[in-house]
Every structure is written in structure tokens, then in C-alpha cells.
């Protein structure tokens, strides 16, 4: 039966979400579409397109503006909201929002300053909750589709939908080549877990078992990141010269043209929204980042000694949902590294490697604090991550891809957050630093790896996903071409199946 579907259209996903909505209507899965849109430019696109009709639209930036016009905070309402939707209180909604709490996205890391006062934050969450609840009550969707839950609004929308019995469907990468899967729970792949458990129990057979074995074998022979941007050759900001490469004549002309165009668009803009990224801050933050890169970090990096026992901790990209949503109590990575280092057996080092996309963003003090820890080595960022995973005795991570690579290679893995591969027997989730030393000791003594379980899980991931170039489609959307893109048609088919279970 055709459903009414609501889409949370976050930033560039608005174009992909619109294409999915179009194909759901076309294949008969949906009868009506509504949407919550984050950016004004996306909202204008949705309003002006002629491909389909949206029965209702909300714009996040208007909700924010209206919230700041409100009078005193209604604490009676907030107390009721907290009692109904608290996690267990309302702070997780606010701390997830990097614009509100950190001023990031509109400014580059390491900028870290709230963009709203405490009272304004309360006004924003109060007005957002009232508006979203009314929207759901008016529109009455059967399902809501999320690309990512990365701020206050989508988390409210998700939790309210759960309470009201509305199906939630989250899109995520499986980290198996170009695999994209769906889940009713943002913390895991719910349908994958169901198949995995049946395979483990012997009540189901999968046609993907052979493919899973082949993929695991190929990965072990030649481990590669699932995204090409995570390879060392794409990490091009390590050297000093790379930070002034924009001064080459052709590149300089393009750079100047882009910034002049952006300045013109900023000055021409009629509405000033809280998520706007202003050109003057882009220039300032880029100047600071290039300055840090020119000064260099080479005195912090170490080469890897031969035949040394080590645990591996990959630094996370900041700020992102991998920490803010999946591990909100473990966002302080320096403290996490300190606690991990002191939890290791005597004689074992902790190797720490920077995330490829964070070169130049962190201040030197960040690395200096890491270097103060006696049994920690800060590894050259260009060193191949999967090789470190392969050589490590144990992987300690928040929720990173390195943990999944460790699982694939049969390594013991400790995580600090909600991540789908926590289901595997060689993975232990740490919920307190007090437990960490014993967890590491036990995992080193018995990894828990079970090859059959791994094959079953990879087969389940393959069965419950489609192979599409989702990342590039998101980064470089072509609004019209997306409607007939085979990838969007395939993903819409998968959505159709899950909405009709």
C-alpha cells in the first residue's frame, strides 16, 4: 500500500532526497510527500521545482528565526518535553548541534564558541519541538527518511516519530565498497542485524555467503579504505609546499574568482540565516589553517620502529556525528588517548594517527599534549592506515572505519560509541574508563574473533544494501539528472521494500 513519506532534507542531500521522493511516487511506493528542509537555498529549490508536489514543508532556518522572537521560556512545556522525549534530558539535542554549541560548520575547526545564549537555546528547542510536533500531527506521515541525524531538529524529529509510531528509515554507508544500507535505528543496521541473527541461528541461508568470503579474502590481501579520500595520496596538506599551491597562476585565478563570486552572493543575499557561511570567515579561517600548515607539524610525527607491540587509535574527524551522536560522552580525544595509554600492558605503545582530512586544522598544542603521554607515538599522517590496523595488537576507537577494518582482519577491537559492527564477537564496547584496562587485557588474551560470524555479517550487509556512488552524488548533485539516475532508482526500490515490511 502506498505511504505518505516525509524526508529530512539536510543541506546537499535535498537534491538526492527530492530524487528519491520522485522515484517513490513513480514506483507507487508513496502517495504523498512532505519534507523538513535545513537550508533556504534547498527550500527555494523545492518550492520552485515542478517535478512533484509536497503537501507540507518546514524550513529550519525560519524556525530558528521565529524562536528568537519569542518572549520568556515556557519551562512548564520544556519539563513536559523532557519527560516525554528526554535522553534522559534535553541536553543531548543541543550538544549534537555543532552550529549552536560550537559555532562550527559556519566556522572551521578549531573554532569552538556557541552561537546562542542559554536562554536562546531553550527558546530554540522549545519552538522547534512545538513546530515539529504540529507538523507531524498535521501531515501524518507513515515514514520519515533521514540522510544523517546531525543536529537538534532531526534528532527531535526522529524521537518524536518513534513515540508516535511513525516508521524511521536512516540511510548510511556500509563501508563495503559503495554499499548503502537502510535502518530503522540510527545506531546500527536494524535489518542487517535481523538477517545476521537468523544466519547465526541457522534458520536462514544467504546467497551472499560466497561473495562475503571473497570480499573478506580480497580485503585481507590488499586492505583499502572504502573512500578513496582516506588514502595517503589524497592527504595533500602534510608538506609546507602544499599549503601555498593555490598561488600557482591558474589555481590563483580560480581562487580569486571563486572568492569574489562568493562575496557578491553574500552581499546580494536578502536573508541572513544562522547557518550561512560568510566569505570573510572562510578567508580568515583558511588563512589560519594555511599558516599552521606552513609552520608545520613535522617535529611531532614519528617513524614506526621495527618489531614493537602497539595498540592503534585513529584520531576522528571533528566535529561530526561519529562522536557527537554515537559517542557524545567521549568527544574529548586527548583525554580518551590518555586513558587508553594508561590501560595498556607494560611495554605496549599506543600509536595515534591523524585523520587525513584534519591536517592543518588542529593547533600545535593539541599534538603537544598527546606527545606528553609517555607510551604514545604520534605516527606520520601519510602512513597507510590499514597497514597500522594489520600490524596492531588491538584497535581502540570511538566509532571509526579503522575499527571495521580491524574486525575484517580478525583483530580485537574496543569501541566507545554506538556503531553497527559492535555486534561482532571480537568487538567490545567500553562504557566507562574504569573498565578499559580489563577490557583490553581480556581482548588481548582472547580476541573473540569468529570467522563464521564475520562472513554472516558481511553477507547480511551485502544482502541489505545497494551499490551506488552515494558520496559523489551527494557532493556534486545534478538536480535534473538525479531524477533518472540508476542509483536513485535502486535506492528508491530498497526504500519501497522497507516501507512495506
TrEMBL record:
GO terms for biological process: polysaccharide biosynthetic process; polysaccharide transport. InterPro entries: Capsule_polysaccharide_synth, TagF_C. Pfam families: Capsule_synth. This is Capsule polysaccharide biosynthesis protein. It comes from Candidatus Taylorbacteria bacterium RIFCSPHIGHO2_02_FULL_43_32b. The lineage of its organism: Bacteria, Candidatus Tayloriibacteriota.
Amino acid at each position: 500500500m502506498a505511504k505518505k513519506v516525509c524526508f529530512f532534507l539536510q543541506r546537499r542531500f535535498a537534491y538526492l532526497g527530492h530524487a528519491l521522493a520522485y522515484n517513490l511516487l513513480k514506483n507507487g511506493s508513496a502517495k504523498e510527500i512532505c519534507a523538513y528542509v535545513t537550508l533556504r537555498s534547498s527550500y527555494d529549490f523545492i518550492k520552485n521545482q515542478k517535478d512533484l508536489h509536497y503537501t507540507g514543508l518546514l524550513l529550519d532556518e525560519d524556525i530558528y528565526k521565529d524562536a528568537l522572537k519569542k518572549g520568556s521560556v515556557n519551562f512548564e512545556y520544556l519539563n513536559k518535553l523532557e519527560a516525554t522525549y528526554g535522553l534522559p534530558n534535553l541536553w543531548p539535542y543541543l550538544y549534537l548541534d555543532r552550529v549552536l554549541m560550537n559555532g562550527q560548520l559556519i566556522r572551521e575547526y578549531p573554532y569552538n564558541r556557541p552561537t546562542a545564549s542559554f536562554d536562546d537555546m531553550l527558546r530554540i528547542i522549545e519552538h522547534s519541538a512545538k513546530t515539529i510536533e504540529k507538523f507531524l500531527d498535521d501531515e501524518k506521515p507513515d515514514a520519515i527518511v533521514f540522510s544523517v541525524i546531525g543536529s537538534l531538529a532531526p534528532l527531535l524529529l526522529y524521537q518524536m516519530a518513534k513515540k508516535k509510531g511513525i516508521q524511521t528509515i536512516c540511510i548510511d554507508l556500509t563501508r563495503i565498497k559503495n554499499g548503502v544500507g537502510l535502518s530503522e535505528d540510527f545506531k546500527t543496521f536494524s535489518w542487517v542485524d535481523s538477517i545476521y541473527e537468523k544466519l547465526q541461528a541457522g534458520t536462514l541461508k544467504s546467497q551472499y555467503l560466497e561473495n562475503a568470503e571473497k570480499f573478506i579474502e580480497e580485503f585481507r590481501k590488499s586492505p583499502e579504505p572504502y573512500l578513496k579520500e582516506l588514502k595517503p595520496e589524497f592527504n595533500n596538506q602534510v608538506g609546507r609546499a602544499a599549503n601555498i599551491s593555490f598561488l600557482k597562476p591558474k589555481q590563483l585565478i580560480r581562487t580569486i574568482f571563486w572568492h569574489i563570486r562568493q562575496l557578491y552572493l553574500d552581499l546580494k543575499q536578502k536573508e541572513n540565516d544562522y547557518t550561512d557561511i560568510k566569505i570573510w570567515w572562510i578567508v580568515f579561517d583558511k588563512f589560519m589553517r594555511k599558516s599552521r600548515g606552513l609552520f608545520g607539524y613535522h617535529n611531532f610525527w614519528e617513524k614506526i620502529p621495527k618489531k614493537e607491540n602497539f595498540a592503534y587509535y585513529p584520531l576522528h574527524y571533528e566535529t561530526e556525528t561519529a562522536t557527537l551522536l554515537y559517542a557524545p560522552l567521549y568527544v574529548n580525544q586527548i583525554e580518551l588517548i590518555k586513558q587508553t595509554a594508561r590501560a595498556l600492558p607494560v611495554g605496549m605503545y599506543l600509536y595515534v594517527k591523524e585523520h587525513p582530512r584534519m591536517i592543518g586544522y588542529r593547533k600545535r598544542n593539541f599534538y603537544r599534549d598527546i606527545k606528553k603521554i609517555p607510551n604514545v607515538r604520534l605516527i606520520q599522517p601519510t602512513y597507510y592506515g590499514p597497514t597500522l590496523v594489520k600490524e596492531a595488537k588491538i584497535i581502540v576507537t570511538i566509532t571509526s572505519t579503522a575499527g571495521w577494518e580491524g574486525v575484517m582482519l580478525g583483530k580485537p577491537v574496543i569501541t566507545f560509541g554506538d556503531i553497527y559492527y559492535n555486534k561482532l564477537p571480537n568487538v567490545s564496547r567500553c562504557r566507562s574508563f574504569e573498565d578499559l584496562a580489563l577490557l583490553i587485557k581480556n581482548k588481548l588474551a582472547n580476541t573473540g574473533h569468529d570467522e563464521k560470524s564475520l562472513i554472516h555479517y558481511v553477507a547480511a550487509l551485502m544482502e541489505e544494501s545497494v551499490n551506488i556512488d552515494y558520496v559523489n552524488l551527494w557532493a556534486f548533485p545534478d538536480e535534473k539528472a538525479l531524477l533518472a539516475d540508476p542509483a536513485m532508482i535502486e535506492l528508491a526500490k530498497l526504500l519501497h521494500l522497507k516501507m512495506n515490511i
